[in-house]
């Protein structure tokens, strides 16, 4: 106190009041301030002990003379805060604008933020009274309003005064403590409450009063009153009064808050919470395309779509439950998108949407006839089927399955049926489907779960009565690990069960009974037995050349011509040309390659037409394609009827084969003998069954060698000095099955007897050890392919007679001579070219075996 100077630099504080112990941050500008800060830093360096009674911190300094007003315009505010300064400076003329009392401040920190601009942190030290303003400082004349003032310092209260106010002091400390606890409940800044709680115990209640008055809400005048009150009791009285008032305000605002909350109805509350949620999301950067109003919009739309889908009762319950759930989920969460996809599926599925079916038998007949040549038995069956639908009104009859080689029109026939019925068409390819989940879907709990192929198809077509083609049902793969897709198909195809088909993903029964299912397969051999049982098989055979000619003329050529942008009459091909194309450029059961080859011819005509058009000679275009043109366009012939020209060789015989893909073909068996010791060698990529047939054949020939006149005595071993080699050409193709038995025997007999078999004779049949001929499969395909290859005579097991009569086209039957054999002797009789003299006379011998 004693060291404090008589005059101080006065800084007028706009709307603030500095009280002892209070820390304030001031923004000061001017040259005086710069000078003041320099002195401050010098004193700081010297660590000069200063005189401030309220604090014993050694490094606190007070400038000798400089400080400046916060802003010049604010000088009229009646508050002063002064820092110590020189007393020789002139008196200020602003005396009237300043309050009588001020607070001595000491500088804690100075920060420069521009030219002559500083942020100065000061702390109130003690009260002072401004006695007289001196002249403004020299620098102030230029730019600042800094003023020097003579001040007298207010002494600290005497012990007597303090003793007189003991009760008030104690009460004030207690009140301050209560106030502090209240502040804690209100979660006021932690730093402030901790600081206050420290001070409550460490500083005198009188100083505490100054501090509390600055902390609580008090008016500017109240603070000034506090500054100018000298009496201990009065000061404590002011402090207590204003603190109690503040406590009341706290209580009231709390009450108002709880009242308002109670009054908010549920909707408002929800809105309020949503707003808060949005704000939080935005803050977290989680707001996305689906959030906020847009989210709401989508949900309303979804609800509308679900409503329009006319769901059955159980589906509706599930959909509404899911809709309710999704509204509570975060749109960015995984669960939300799973639920969303699920609801989308439910809304998209055609629960009650049908395409209007027209079952018009006459129209259907025209459609089927128009689209496909031949296939009369298939058309007849389809018309029967449709007639039943027309009369009975539902389709609870067995599922139709078209079986036949590739390219015979199974798929396109199904499409024609859909058109004939005015229904939508959907194709499901089952080739390679190995997982039951492909048919029935995955449960929704799996990541990336999807509905099965049937439900996906229905979603795509958007009606519940399409024609669904289950393509390649014979190519389903049974897997031990992934369930059996065929088992799921059983349920789909069973008319008794499929009105409650359950897809794992959808998890709601869906009625499939309105769908017309048609299956296709290349062979029945690999169709699972229970599935086969539920289907009605309709065979589509391979076509003969004549049939191909008609198909090409009536369907394929016009189709290709139009597809390439020409008019139907701009490519003309005679029957002779078409037949050559079918015979010499394709070798297949169906007509797919034929169609492709016709496409090549049409393209060549396109080029010719385009070139002529460019040179303006369009009129010179010749739409005809003759035999020579065919060779020019397609190159030299690929397949020839080589059989006719082939000269017969002993040991070489033509057999008939049937492949799993539904194709028939001819195959040769070649045998030769060489010096050896009776070994049988087999080549040509043969399976076990065909190898066994070769063993049986050799055994039969050896045991009947004498009767066959290839051994001189009954006990001669014909292969004693020879090894036998049997080969099936086209070694790259695996071959198996018992039907080559008769061919093998004939080939061996031909080899040993040196009698040959005409190259236009072919045969098929299984042989028993006793020489009986057993029936085999694939007769029609084999016969048709033999006809295609130019075979004139076919030897077949007697018991396959009915297959020829029923299935082989009449035209083929007329062209080929059929020999039905019961025993091996019949086969040899029909096959070998043998003179009467050489003929064996062993029939009686055989008959009593
Ligand atoms: N009898 C026919 N009349 C007219 N066009 C036919 C006939 N048979 C087949 N086609 C035509 O042959 C082409 C191939 O037929 P499609 O694709 O239906 O064969 P597919 O039997 O289904 O073969 P895959 O078993 O390989 O699926 C189609 O363009 C089809 O129109």
UniProtKB/TrEMBL annotation:
Q: Name one GO molecular function term.
A: serine-type endopeptidase activity
- Where is ATP annotated to bind? 404-411
Tell me which UniProt keywords the record has, alphabetically.
ATP-binding, Cytoplasm, Hydrolase, Nucleotide-binding, Peroxisome, Protease, Serine protease, Stress response
ATP-binding recorded as keyword? yes
Composition bias (Polar residues) maps to 73-86
Please state the Enzyme Commission number of this protein: 3.4.21.-
From the Swiss-Prot or TrEMBL record, give the protein name.
Lon protease homolog
Q: What taxonomic lineage is listed for the species of origin? A: Eukaryota, Fungi, Fungi incertae sedis, Mucoromycota, Mucoromycotina
């Amino acid at each position: 106190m004693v060291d404090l100077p008589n005059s101080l630099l006065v800084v007028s504080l706009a709307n603030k009041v500095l009280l002892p112990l209070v820390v304030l941050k001031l923004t000061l500008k001017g040259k005086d301030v710069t000078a003041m800060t320099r002195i401050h830093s010098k004193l700081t360096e010297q660590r000069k002990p200063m005189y401030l009674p309220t604090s014993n911190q050694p490094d606190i300094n007070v400038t000798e003379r400089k400080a400046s007003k916060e802003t010049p315009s604010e000088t009229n505010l009646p508050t002063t805060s002064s820092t110590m300064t020189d007393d020789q400076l002139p008196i200020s003329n602003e005396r009237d604008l300043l309050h009588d009392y001020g607070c001595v401040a000491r500088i804690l920190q100075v920060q420069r933020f521009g030219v002559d601009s500083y942020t100065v942190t000061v702390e109130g030290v003690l009260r002072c009274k401004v006695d007289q303003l001196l002249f403004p400082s020299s620098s102030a004349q230029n730019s600042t309003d800094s003023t020097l003032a003579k001040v007298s310092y207010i002494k600290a209260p005497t012990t007597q005064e303090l003793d007189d106010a003991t009760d008030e002091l104690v009460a004030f400390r207690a009140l301050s403590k209560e106030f502090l606890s209240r502040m804690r409940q209100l979660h006021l800044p932690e730093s402030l409450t901790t600081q206050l709680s420290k001070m409550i115990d460490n500083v005198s209640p009188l100083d505490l009063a100054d501090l509390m008055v600055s902390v609580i809400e008090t008016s500017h005048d109240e603070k000034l009153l506090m500054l100018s009150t000298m009496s201990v009791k009065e000061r404590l009285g002011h402090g207590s009064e204003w603190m109690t008032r503040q406590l009341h305000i706290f209580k009231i605002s709390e009450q108002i808050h709880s009242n308002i909350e109670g009054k908010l109805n549920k909707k408002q509350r929800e809105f309020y919470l949503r707003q808060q949620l949005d704000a939080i999301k935005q803050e977290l950067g989680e707001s996305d395309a689906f959030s906020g109003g847009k989210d709401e919009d989508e949900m309303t739309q979804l609800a509308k779509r679900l409503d329009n889908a006319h769901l059955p009762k159980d589906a509706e319950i599930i959909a509404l439950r899911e809709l309710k759930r999704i509204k509570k989920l975060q749109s960015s969460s995984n669960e939300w998108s799973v639920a969303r996809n699920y609801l989308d599926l439910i809304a998209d599925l055609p629960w009650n949407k049908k395409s209007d079916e027209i079952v018009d038998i006459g129209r259907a007949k025209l459609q089927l006839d128009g689209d496909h040549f031949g296939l009369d038995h298939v058309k007849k069956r389809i018309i029967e089927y449709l007639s039943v639908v027309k009369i009975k009104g539902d389709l609870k009859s067995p599922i139709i399955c078209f079986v036949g080689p590739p390219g015979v029109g199974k798929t396109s026939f199904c499409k024609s049926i859909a058109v004939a019925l005015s229904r939508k068409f959907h194709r499901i390819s089952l080739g390679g489907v190995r997982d039951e989940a492909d048919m029935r879907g995955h449960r929704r709990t799996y990541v990336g779960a999807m509905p099965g192929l049937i439900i996906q198809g229905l979603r795509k077509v958007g009606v519940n009565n399409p024609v669904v083609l289950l393509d390649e049902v014979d190519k389903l793969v049974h897997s031990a690990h992934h369930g059996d897709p065929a088992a799921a198909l059983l349920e789909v195809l069973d008319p008794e069960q499929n009105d409650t088909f359950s897809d794992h993903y959808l998890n709601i029964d869906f009625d499939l009974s309105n769908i017309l299912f048609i299956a296709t397969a290349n062979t029945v051999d690999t169709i699972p037995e229970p599935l086969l049982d539920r289907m009605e098989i309709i065979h589509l055979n391979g076509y003969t050349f004549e049939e191909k000619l008609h198909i090409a003329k009536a369907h394929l050529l016009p189709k290709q011509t139009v597809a390439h942008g020409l008019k139907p009459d701009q490519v003309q091909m005679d029957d002779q040309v078409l037949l050559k194309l079918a015979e010499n450029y394709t070798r297949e059961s169906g007509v797919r390659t034929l169609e492709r080859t016709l496409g090549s011819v049409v393209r060549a005509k396109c080029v010719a037409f385009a070139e002529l058009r460019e040179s303006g000679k369009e009129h010179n275009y010749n739409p005809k394609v003759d035999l020579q043109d065919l060779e020019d366009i397609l190159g030299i012939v690929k397949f020839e009827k080589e059989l006719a020209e082939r000269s017969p060789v002993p040991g070489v015989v033509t057999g008939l084969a049937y492949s799993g893909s539904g194709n028939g073909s001819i195959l040769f068996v070649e045998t030769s003998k060489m010096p050896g010791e009776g070994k049988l060698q087999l080549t040509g990529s043969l399976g076990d069954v065909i190898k066994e047939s070769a063993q049986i054949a050799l055994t039969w020939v050896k045991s009947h060698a004498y009767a066959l006149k290839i051994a001189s005595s009954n006990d001669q071993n014909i292969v004693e000095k020879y090894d036998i080699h049997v080969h099936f050409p086209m070694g790259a193709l695996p071959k198996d099955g018992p039907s080559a038995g008769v061919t093998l025997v004939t080939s061996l007999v031909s080899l040993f007897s040196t009698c040959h078999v005409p190259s236009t004779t072919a045969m098929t049949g299984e042989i028993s050890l006793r020489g009986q001929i057993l029936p085999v499969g694939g007769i029609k395909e084999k016969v048709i392919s033999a006809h295609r290859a130019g075979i004139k005579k076919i030897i077949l097991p007697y018991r396959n007679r009915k297959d020829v009569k029923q299935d082989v086209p009449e035209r083929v039957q007329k062209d080929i001579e059929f020999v039905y054999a019961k025993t091996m002797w019949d086969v040899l009789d029909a096959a070998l070219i043998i003179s009467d003299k050489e003929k064996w006379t062993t029939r009686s011998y055989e008959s009593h075996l």
